[in-house]
Amino acid sequence: MSHLIAATFRFGTAATRGWLESDDDGLIVALGSGEPPRRPDADFDDGLLFEAGDFNAHSHPEQSLYTDLVDRRWDLATWCRHTIYRFSPHLGPDEIGLGCLRAFSRMLAQGVTSVAVSYYLHGRRGNELDRAVIAAARKSGIRLLFGRMNYDRTSPGAYPAKAASQAAYFESPQEARRAYEELKDEESATVTVAPSLHSLHGSSKEAIVEGLRLAWRDGRPLQFHLSEDSQDVDIALKEQGLRPLAFFDSLLRSGQVPSLEPLFLSDCCWIDDDERAIIAKRGMKVVLDGRMNDRVRTGEADLPALLARGILPWLGTDGEASNDDLSVTGERRHLARRWQLDEGFVEAMSRRPFPMGKGTVGPLAVGAFADVVGRRKGLVEEVLVGGRPVLSRGRHLSLDVEREIEGPLKEAMERLDGTVPRA
């Protein structure tokens, strides 16, 4: 059964009174200007301006647990020491669920209607903690691309908290494959599950080959932290005698993987122009986390150099505790200011179609999901995901944020902060 809404929509820079019709899968089947073809199921007043919701293309939502504990002066190593390496081995499904509910509810309130999650806190529990992330997405109403990440390397000589964390993340590629296959049972109209990898310091060559084969077989993107900091370049040169993208290319040229097209590379701070040429040639995707990279001082992706190679990145926020917030609009403004680019160009770049499940997210178009945001005087007031209301008049319809998230989360983190030793 279709669902029809009438509203004022923004297409590009133009605002037009019109209508949008979606089907049971939440896909746009028709849209147009002027009067709708029948009486709409919902008719929004002209004080609201609707547009496509934002796609947060890289996120670690459980890290919203740490937002109230961090010091903005921390670099990445210090940040990891006091957050993920201190707490992650001690987190259960309740804490993971609360962190993700906080992240997803805040994303929706900031106009984000779909998110790609990179998740590696498996805790040696199979899919128990992974399912907590998916359950939080369903409860919040956000559209989720869940990247079930394989982390199968440890750091020799790591301090105890880091070693314990890496042991909790660790799965062999075979274990990760079985868990990914099982987790696909969670897929729905708003949840897509994909294989994922961590990085060159977190994923072995065996895991990379296995992940690429699975992603190609299933037609899913394969999320991968690529040269977020310089150690990944050092690892590739030491172990493979090649820079990271040249190493990936060697896997393809030697026939060890069927394609590099599934790779969805985040950060790309320490790549050179030869590597950018490989990204363009092999059809890989890129997502930038500009504000996070700047805040924890990992490096910086050269956006003009990517654009010069015809590489148009999507934008992500990484985790809330290492960023200012979870707003993709904030990422656009940061990049536009940093590189003196037109904000309209950066916005159009970040709204390009991205495949997810049966449709795409990004623009308003037939075949895309009916994920829309209505703003009044710039503030998010209405959010629909798949044509169904998630926020109305600025309030979450399925969540009492203070009672179900903020209160219990504060209590959980106070308890952990008082019992978990400092790393």
TrEMBL record:
- InterPro entries in the record, alphabetically? Amidohydro-rel, Metal_Hydrolase, MTA/SAH_deaminase
What are the UniProt keywords, alphabetically?
Hydrolase
Q: Tell me a Gene Ontology molecular-function term this record carries.
A: hydrolase activity
Domain (Amidohydrolase-related): give its ranges: 53-373
Checking Pfam families in the record gives: Amidohydro_1
Question: Which SUPFAM superfamilies does the record match to this protein?
Answer: Metallo-dependent hydrolases
Which named protein is this?
Amidohydrolase family protein
Q: Which organism is it from?
A: Aminithiophilus ramosus
Q: What is the lineage of its organism?
A: Bacteria, Thermotogati, Synergistota, Synergistia, Synergistales
